Amino acid sequence: MQVATLKQNANITAIKDSIAKQMDFAAWTSWIAPLDFEIVNDVLVLAAQNQFSADYISGVYGAMIKNVAAGFGCDVKIIVRGVSSVAPIANDNNVQSYAPVADTNVPVAFDAFIASDENMFALQAAKKVASSPVPFSPLYIYGASGTGKTLLAECIKSSAQNAILMSGGQFVAEFTRALNKRTIFAFKDFCRNCDTFILDDVQALAGKRATMDEFLQLVVDLRAMGKNVVLTSACPVNNLSGFDRRAQSLLASGLVVDIVAPNAAVKRKMLVRAGVKCDVADAIANRIACDGHLIAGVANKIKTYAELMGGDVTLDVAEHLLADTLQKFKTPIAMVKAMCEKLGVAYDAICGAGRAKSLVLARQIIMVVLKNATRLSLTEIGNFVGNRDHATVMYAIKQIEKMQKTDLMLSAQINQFIAECK
Questions:
Q1: Starting from the edge strand earliest in sequence, which strands make up the sheet with 255-258, in order?
Q2: Disulfide-capable partner of 146 in 175, 203, 292, 347 (CB 3.0 to 4.6 Å)?
Q3: Do 212 and 229 belong to one domain?
Q4: Residues 251 and 146 both lie in one domain
Q5: Closest CA to 371 of 407, 398, 345, 334
Q6: Can you tell me the distance from the alpha carbon of 35 to that of 158, in angstroms, rounded to the nearest whole number?
Q7: Quick check: 139 and 199 in contact, CB under 8 A?
Q8: Same domain, 115 and 238
Q9: What percent of the chain is modeled with pLDDT above 70?
Q10: pLDDT tens digit string along 378-391?
């Protein structure tokens, strides 16, 4: 009996070693190492902590495990601890449950997102994600506040089958609540029991190590199961502060697209669609900041005034009503600060001595825009970006103009900035 037990333990150790050699360390540690291994009548029995783990391991690693076990003359059976066969339970504690916050969002169709030519790529990618599994998951959409990231996320949620939409702050709060209430396995099951998982404002996870690790594992698991992940952010992946290189690499491994601020045509269409008269929309579109939230606020103000006061809102009334909102003129400093926000960099960093690649590129873009949108001299431009000298500004402009010839996305972004600053 003792000899048989020793032989069985040796076989289990050998099987574990063989499986580990065929997996990366993170997957082995997360999924296979926690299993209970046992050989019963030439059957390798693997006991998982919950039903989700059993199903996931069977679907993703089942074939590989069977091949390894066959080399030792064993079949394979994956069960849940304490259950003789795989049965439909929620997690390792069947009294555990997770109730998500009630979804109060009104369904939003893709027609609600008014796309400019620069944003058409992002819109088509979002529609593709909403219609079927895609090979470019995760879809990472970034842009400044007011460009329509959240609206696009809501459109995907409304059009996709079995989709979950959470804000970054909500994910942090729900994960913490699940830990405190000891319902973490039920929370894990809930997040994975979907076809498309959408996280709006992923930057909210910065600095929250445990939450970030949980979310990164969620992205890995959903991708392995052929499901879609959509992320939105205020900045490019490589500008995410508080995210290590491993996290940035994973988030950038799918499709990264940017959306730019609404141009004059989009702003006009948004206003007209909201009920603003065409002549008023034509006159004020170029005098409203390129921020979708602000444009919606302007439309609501005009609409509410018309409803409460009666009659149409003329241009004179609109200018008086929006005196605190309509732009009269733009100073170079205001232009620089606005571009800093859209590029996801701090104004102090642009004026500082930092030499990070992304920061240098942003600084050079701002110089080119000021050259083309204003009558400032090169020396004056340098003064507005941290007192750079004439030669530095000239070099930056030459570098960007060279890049524009081959980088169409960069060229479109710069042209958008120039149009906004004029």
A1: 163-167, 196-200, 228-233, 139-142, 255-258
A2: 292
A3: yes
A4: yes
A5: 398
A6: 38
A7: no
A8: yes
A9: 91
A10: 988 999 999 999 89
Comparing CA positions, the residue from 255, 251, 223, 218 lying closest to residue 237 is: 251
Residue whose C-alpha is closest to residue 381's, from 373, 360, 358: 373
Q: What is the pTM of this model?
A: 0.61
DSSP-assigned beta bridge partners for residue 145? none
Range with the largest mean pLDDT of 61-65, 160-164, 208-212: 160-164
In a domain, 30, yes or no: yes
Q: Which residues contact 118 (CB under 8 A, 6 or more apart)?
A: 259, 260, 263, 412, 413, 416
Cα–Cα distance, 203 to 206 (Å, whole number): 6
Distance CA 77, CA 62 (A): 9
**Mean pLDDT rounded to a whole number for the chain:** 86
How far is it, in rounded angstroms, from Cα 346 to Cα 134?
35
CA dist list (Å): 72 to 1, 19, 38, 66 = 20, 12, 13, 10
How many domains does one find in the chain? 4
Please check whether residue 295 is in contact with residue 269, taking contact to mean a CB–CB distance below 8 angstroms: no
Domain housing 19? 2-80
Please give the Cα distance from 323 to 387 (Å, whole number): 34
Residues forming a β-bridge with 196: 163, 228
The H or E element containing residue 393 is helix 390-404
- Whether cis (ω within 30° of 0) applies to the bond prior to 138 is yes
